[in-house]
């Protein structure tokens, strides 16, 4: 069973997680403790050595981030629980860190548990959390975490030149070369900033900052900073040109 701690200062929220565990996943979790302050969490988490922490974002006058940055070693998985916050959620997605929106839905909870089972045996989350800390700072350069054969790697978003669909895979082209990821391009279309990335074609997503040339005609295309030629569909051409007017 997964040794678990819940850190939340709202009893009805921690009770909701306990109820979901009891009703949906009774043989998955061993709840060691429910904690409602950062101070208690810093004392008890190292003692109890959980595999997983359900961590609220806002805990009294402090945050779950304060806890993670203060604790000496992060040798457990984290699932954040949060009220709706576009900025924080975008940071979670960039960093490939799981989260649950309050009030927590049973289907979302079960989906999160399924993802957890796939990763619980992997190494610590410290690199992913470091990426998260970068992504929640407004003026920091943003990074995304992508899966690899050996675990995961991080990419600066500004270094991504373009992405190309390959059935259920995506080829991500950067200054350093190409990375193939086992996620469809739709995932990255939803993830990456609308103001910086543009879908030129059903199979192509480009970083507008890396566009070097545009060639008009029946088969319009752009030349990117890595000299790749990326097509622009007829339906997308007018909207594309608006970005440069």
From TrEMBL:
<dbReference type="InterPro" id="IPR001789">
    <property type="entry name" value="Sig_transdc_resp-reg_receiver"/>
</dbReference>
<feature type="modified residue" description="4-aspartylphosphate">
    <location>
        <position position="56"/>
    </location>
</feature>
<feature type="domain" description="HTH LytTR-type">
    <location>
        <begin position="144"/>
        <end position="245"/>
    </location>
</feature>
<keyword id="KW-0597">Phosphoprotein</keyword>
<protein>
    <submittedName>
        <fullName>Response regulator</fullName>
    </submittedName>
</protein>
<dbReference type="InterPro" id="IPR011006">
    <property type="entry name" value="CheY-like_superfamily"/>
</dbReference>
<dbReference type="Pfam" id="PF00072">
    <property type="entry name" value="Response_reg"/>
</dbReference>
<dbReference type="GO" id="GO:0003677">
    <property type="term" value="F:DNA binding"/>
</dbReference>
<dbReference type="InterPro" id="IPR007492">
    <property type="entry name" value="LytTR_DNA-bd_dom"/>
</dbReference>
<dbReference type="GO" id="GO:0000156">
    <property type="term" value="F:phosphorelay response regulator activity"/>
</dbReference>
<feature type="domain" description="Response regulatory">
    <location>
        <begin position="3"/>
        <end position="117"/>
    </location>
</feature>
<dbReference type="InterPro" id="IPR046947">
    <property type="entry name" value="LytR-like"/>
</dbReference>
<dbReference type="Pfam" id="PF04397">
    <property type="entry name" value="LytTR"/>
</dbReference>
């Amino acid at each position: 069973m997964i040794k678990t701690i819940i850190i939340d200062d709202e009893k009805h929220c921690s009770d909701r997680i306990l109820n979901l565990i009891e009703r949906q996943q009774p043989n998955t979790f061993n709840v060691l403790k429910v904690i409602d302050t950062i101070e208690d969490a810093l004392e008890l988490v190292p003692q109890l050595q959980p595999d997983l922490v359900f961590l609220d974002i806002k805990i009294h006058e402090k945050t779950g981030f304060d806890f993670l940055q203060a604790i000496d070693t992060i040798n457990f998985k984290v699932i954040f629980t949060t009220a709706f916050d576009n900025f924080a959620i975008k940071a979670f997605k960039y960093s490939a860190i799981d989260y649950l929106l309050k009030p927590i839905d049973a289907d979302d909870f079960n989906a999160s548990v399924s993802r957890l089972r796939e990763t619980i045996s992997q190494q610590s989350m410290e690199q992913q959390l470091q990426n998260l800390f970068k992504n929640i700072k407004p003026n920091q350069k943003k990074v995304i975490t992508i899966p690899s054969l050996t675990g995961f790697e991080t990419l600066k978003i500004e270094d991504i030149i373009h992405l190309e669909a390959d059935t259920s895979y995506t080829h991500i082209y950067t200054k350093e070369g190409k990375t193939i990821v086992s996620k469809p391009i739709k995932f990255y279309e939803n993830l990456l900033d609308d103001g910086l990335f543009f879908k030129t074609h059903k199979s192509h997503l480009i970083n507008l900052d890396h566009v070097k040339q545009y060639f008009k005609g029946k088969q319009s295309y752009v030349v990117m900073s890595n000299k790749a030629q990326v097509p622009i569909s007829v339906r997308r051409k007018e909207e594309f040109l608006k970005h440069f007017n």
